[in-house]
Amino acid sequence: MTTFLSVVRGELDNLVSNGRIFAIFFIAIAILGLYYPQPYSSEVLREVAVAVVDRDDTTSSRQLTRDVDVSQNARVVMKLPDVASAERAVFERRVSGYLFIPQHFEREVLSGRQAAVAFYGDASYFLIFSKLRSAIGTAIQRLGTNVVIGQLAVDGMNPEEALAVASPIRINMIPLFNPEGGYASYVVPAVFLLIVQQLLLMGVGLLNTLPSEAPRVSAPPVIATAGKLLAYMIPGVFLYLVATIIIPYVYNIPRIGDVWSSLAIAIPFSLAASALGLFLAALLRDALIVQLVCSLLGLPLFFMAGIAWPSEAMPELLQWVASLVPSTSGIDAAVRINQMGAALSDVTGQFRVLWVLALIYALLAYLAMRLTDAQAEFRS
Amino acid sequence: MRRKTVRPGFWLVFRREVRWLIRRPFLVLLASIIPIAMFLILASVYARGIATELPIAVLDQDDSPGSRQIVHLVDAAPDIRIKTKVVDLEEAKRGILSGSYQGLLLVPENFTRDAMAGRRPEITFFYNTQMMVAGNLSARGVSSALPSIAAQVQAASRMARGMSADEAAIAVQPVAMDAHGLFNPALDYSHFLLAALVVAVLQLTTSLATCYSVALDVETPHSLRILRRLGGGIVPAVLGKLLPLTIVACLVHAVCDIIMFGYFGLPLDGSGWLLALSALVFLLSCQILGALAALFIGSPPPALSVLALTVSPSFGYLGVSFPREAMNAFSIWWGNIFPATPYVSLRIDQTVRGAPVDVSLAILHHQFVYLAVAVSFLLFILVRITRKAATAGTQPPGQAAAPEM
Question: Which residues does residue A98 pair with via DSSP β-bridges, in sequence order?
Answer without folding.
Answer: A51, A120
